[in-house]
TrEMBL record:
Top-level taxon of origin: Eukaryota
Membrane topology: Single-pass membrane protein
Protein name: NADPH--cytochrome P450 reductase
UniProt-annotated binding residues for FMN: 89-94, 141-144, 176-185, 211
Record's cofactor remark: Binds 1 FAD per monomer.
A Pfam family: NAD_binding_1
Principal place of residence: endoplasmic reticulum
E.C. designation(s): 1.6.2.4
C-alpha cells in the first residue's frame, strides 16, 4: 500500500492479532486530538467575538456578491417593498438609471430596490404577483454586436430557453443603446417582447435611449410618462414629496489601520501587491509598460504604439480581442475639487448603504481617502446628468446659481435647452460647474455618492499572440481638445498612457491595470480563406494582428488566402502609421493588396470609401465568388455605415440582385460571421 506521500509500505501477515491493534490506538488518538482542538478553538472564537469592538471593515464587490441573497422576492416581502428595478449595465449608466427610478418610487408610495439580475434567481419573477401592486422595471443596455451585458447574460438566456408563466407580473423596460450601431437596443426590445409573450403585463411602453444623441433626455422623458402610466394602472396619485434622501451615509474611518484602507484597487484589498490569476474586470493585472513610442511622423497630433508586458501573468489572448485599461484622473483636477470645496482630500472615509437589504454596501471600495476616490473610482471628467444638478441645488448659497441649477434639473423645454447648451454643448464637467457656480459647495462625501464610477477604457489589440505571446499591443490616439469655454479637456486614459514611458532596466517600469475582454472579431478558421480589411486611422489596429497571424502561418509553410487592406489617414508623411511594416508585408506576399487613401494630400479629399467604390470588381471577387470574409474597424457614426451601403450596392450590381436581395445577402454574411465590424462612436 501507499501512504499520503506515495511511498510504498511493506505489509506483513501475522497469525495472531492483539486485542487492541496499533490502528485502533492511532484512530483513538486522532479522535481525541480533534475533539480537544474543536472544543478549545470554539471557546476561543466565542470569547474573541464577545470582546471584538465594532470597526468598519474593508469591503469589495466580490465579497458583496458572495454574501448576497439570490431571492429578491424575499427581500421585497420582508421589507414591505413593491418595486424592483433590474439593470443590465456594462459601463454603469443603466445601473445609475435604475437607482434613480427606485428612489423616485417613494413619491408614488412604491418603496423600491435596485437589483443586479446576475445576483438574483430570476425565476422568482413568477412570484411577483403575490405582492400587491408590484412592478418590475428593467433598465437594459445592448452591448457589442447586439449582445446582453455580462451581468444580464444569464437572465437573457433564461428568457430564451424557458417558458415560465409570468401572468400577474407587471413590468416596464427602458433600453440603452446607440443608433450608430446596427443592433440598436436589440436586447431591451427582445426582453420587452418576451416578457409579454410569457404572460406579463406591460404597464408602460418601452423606452429607447440613444447614447449617440442625448440618452439623459430620452430617459427623463420616458420616466415622466412611466409614472403617469403607473398612476393610471394602479389608481394611485403622486404624493408630491421630493425624495432627496441620501442612499449612503458617511462613516468616519480615521481610526482604521493603513493596511485596511483601499488605495485604488478595483475589488480586492491589496490586489496589486498580491496578484492572483485569473484576471478580469474585478481583478485586473498590473502590467508593466514595455514599449511606448510615437507613430505619427509629424504634425500636432499624437498616436501611440504601446506594449503591455504580460509575461508570467498566465493571461492569454486571441487576435481580435480587446484589452481593458483602468485609468486614473489627473491630480490637477482632483486637487482642484479639494480646493474649490475646501476639503481635506486625505481624510479616510466610507460610504455605507442606508438600505441594509441591499447587496451593494458601498458605491466603490471603502474605506479610502477622498483623494483615492476622486482619482481611481469616480468619473470627474464626463458631463454630469440632470439628477446631479438637482442634488446640487441645496448647496447653492447664491439665488442665481440656485435658479440655474433648478432650471437645468427641470424637464421643461427651457430646462432641457439650458442643460443641453450649458452642460453638453459647452462640455462642462463637475470641476467646471463648481468653478462657474462658485456659491455651490456640496459636501464632498455627498458629491462622491452622486458621481458615476470611473470606467475602464477598451482598445482593440493590435498584435497576434502567435508572434507576441508575452505582450499585448495597442494603438491609441492622444485625446486633447478645446471646449467652447476655452478649457482644454484631456482624455483620461490616453493622457495617462502618454506619461507612462519605460525607463532603463535599473528603474521600476511604469505600470497600469489591464484585463482581456473576449471578442467575436476573428479571422476565418481556415488560413486559406481570403479576407478584406477596412480600417482607416487607428481602425488598422486589429488588422495589424490579423496580418501578423497570417504572416506567421505563411512562414510555417501553410497556405494563406488573399489579404486585402484598405487604409486611410490625412497625410502620407504625417500619420501613415505602421507604414514600414505594411510595405514589408506587401513585399513578402502576406498582404496581397494595400489600398491607400490620404485625404489631405490633394485638393479633393479622398477616403477609403472612394477606393471601395472604385474596386467593386475586387470586392465582389472575394466576398461573392470566393466566399471570403470582410472586416470593418473604426468610426461607427459615418464610416462604417457608408461602407455597409457600398457593400450592398456592390452586391446588387455585381451579383445582379435587387436591393432587397442584396440586403438579405449581406445580412446572411453577418450571420455567418463573414461580415464583421469592430466599431466605436
Amino acid at each position: 500500500m501507499e501512504n499520503s506521500e506515495g511511498v510504498k509500505i511493506e505489509s506483513t501477515v501475522v497469525t495472531e492479532e492483539p486485542l487492541i491493534s496499533a490502528l485502533d490506538i492511532a484512530l483513538f488518538v486522532v479522535i481525541i486530538t480533534v475533539a480537544y482542538f474543536w472544543y478549545f478553538k470554539r471557546d476561543k472564537q466565542s470569547s474573541s467575538s464577545e470582546k471584538k469592538p465594532y470597526t468598519i471593515q474593508p469591503s469589495s464587490l466580490s465579497s458583496i456578491e458572495q454574501t448576497s441573497n439570490s431571492s429578491f422576492i424575499k427581500k421585497l416581502k420582508s421589507t414591505g417593498r413593491s418595486l424592483v428595478v433590474f439593470y443590465g449595465s456594462q459601463t454603469g449608466t443603466a445601473e445609475e438609471f435604475a437607482g434613480r427610478i427606485a428612489k423616485e418610487g417613494a413619491r408614488y408610495k412604491m418603496k423600491g430596490m435596485v437589483a443586479d439580475p446576475e445576483e438574483c434567481d430570476m425565476a422568482d419573477l413568477v412570484e411577483m404577483k403575490e405582492i400587491q401592486k408590484s412592478l418590475a422595471i428593467f433598465c437594459i443596455a445592448t452591448y457589442g454586436e447586439g449582445d446582453p451585458t455580462d451581468n444580464a447574460m444569464d437572465f437573457y438566456e433564461w428568457l430564451q430557453n424557458g417558458d415560465a408563466d409570468l401572468e400577474g407580473l407587471n413590468y416596464a423596460v427602458f433600453g440603452l443603446g446607440n443608433k450608430t450601431y446596427e443592433h440598436y437596443n436589440e436586447i431591451a426590445i427582445y426582453i420587452d417582447q418576451r416578457l409579454e409573450e410569457l404572460g406579463a403585463t406591460r404597464v408602460h411602453e418601452i423606452g429607447l435611449g440613444d447614447d449617440d444623441a442625448n440618452i439623459e433626455d430620452d430617459f427623463v422623458s420616458w420616466k415622466e410618462k412611466l409614472w403617469e402610466s403607473v398612476c393610471s394602472h394602479y389608481g394611485i396619485e403622486e404624493t408630491g414629496e421630493e425624495s432627496n434622501i441620501r442612499q449612503y451615509k458617511l462613516v468616519d474611518c480615521s481610526e482604521v489601520l493603513p493596511e485596511r484602507i483601499f488605495s485604488g484597487e478595483i475589488s480586492r484589498l491589496k490586489s496589486y501587491e498580491n496578484q492572483r490569476f485569473p484576471f478580469d474586470v474585478k481583478n485586473p493585472y498590473l502590467s508593466k509598460i514595455a514599449v511606448n513610442r510615437e507613430l505619427h511622423k509629424s504634425g500636432d497630433r499624437s498616436c501611440m504604439h504601446i506594449e503591455f508586458d504580460i509575461d508570467g501573468s498566465k493571461m492569454r489572448y486571441d487576435t481580435g480581442d480587446h484589452v481593458a485599461v483602468y485609468p486614473k484622473n489627473s491630480s490637477e483636477l482632483v486637487d482642484k475639487i479639494g480646493e474649490l470645496l475646501d476639503a481635506d482630500l486625505d481624510a479616510v472615509f466610507s460610504l455605507l448603504n442606508t438600505d441594509e437589504e441591499s447587496s451593494k454596501k458601498h458605491p466603490f471600495p471603502c474605506p479610502c481617502t477622498y483623494r483615492t476616490a476622486l482619482t481611481y473610482y469616480l468619473d470627474i471628467t464626463s458631463n454630469p446628468r440632470t439628477h446631479i444638478m438637482k442634488e446640487l441645488i441645496e448647496y447653492a448659497s447664491d439665488p442665481k446659481d440656485q435658479e440655474k441649477l433648478k432650471l437645468m434639473a427641470s424637464s421643461t423645454p427651457e430646462g432641457k435647452k439650458e442643460f443641453h447648451e450649458w452642460i453638453l454643448r459647452d462640455n462642462r464637467n463637475i470641476v467646471h460647474i463648481l468653478e462657474d457656480l462658485p456659491s455651490v459647495k456640496p459636501d464632498l462625501d455627498h458629491l462622491c455618492e452622486l458621481l458615476p464610477r470611473l470606467q475602464c477604457r477598451y482598445y482593440s489589440i493590435s498584435s497576434s499572440p502567435k508572434v507576441y505571446p508575452k505582450s499585448i499591443h495597442i494603438t491609441a490616439v492622444l485625446v486633447n481638445y478645446t471646449t467652447p469655454t476655452n478649457r482644454v479637456n484631456k482624455g483620461v486614459a490616453t493622457n495617462l498612457l502618454a506619461q507612462l514611458i519605460p525607463t532603463n532596466d535599473e528603474l521600476p517600469q511604469p505600470t497600469i491595470p489591464i484585463y482581456i475582454r473576449r471578442s467575436q472579431f476573428r479571422l476565418p478558421p481556415k488560413s486559406q480563406t481570403p479576407i478584406i480589411m477596412i480600417g482607416p486611422g487607428t481602425g488598422l489596429a486589429p488588422f495589424r494582428g490579423f496580418i501578423q497571424e497570417r504572416d506567421y502561418a505563411r512562414k510555417e509553410g501553410r497556405e494563406i488566402g488573399e489579404m486585402v487592406l484598405y487604409f486611410g489617414c490625412r497625410k502620407k508623411d504625417e500619420d501613415f502609421i505602421y507604414e514600414n511594416e505594411l510595405q514589408e508585408y506587401v513585399a513578402n506576399g502576406t498582404l496581397t493588396k494595400l489600398h491607400l487613401a490620404f485625404s489631405r494630400d490633394q485638393p479633393e479629399k479622398k477616403y477609403v470609401t472612394h477606393l471601395l467604390e472604385q474596386n467593386a470588381d475586387g470586392l465582389w471577387n472575394i466576398i461573392g465568388e470566393k466566399s471570403g470574409h470582410l472586416y470593418v474597424c473604426g468610426d461607427a457614426r459615418s464610416m462604417a455605415k457608408d461602407v455597409h451601403s457600398i457593400i450592398v450596392k456592390v452586391v446588387m450590381e455585381k451579383g445582379q440582385m435587387t436591393n432587397s436581395q442584396a440586403l438579405n445577402y449581406v445580412k446572411k454574411m453577418e450571420q455567418q460571421k463573414r461580415y464583421s465590424a469592430d466599431v466605436w462612436s
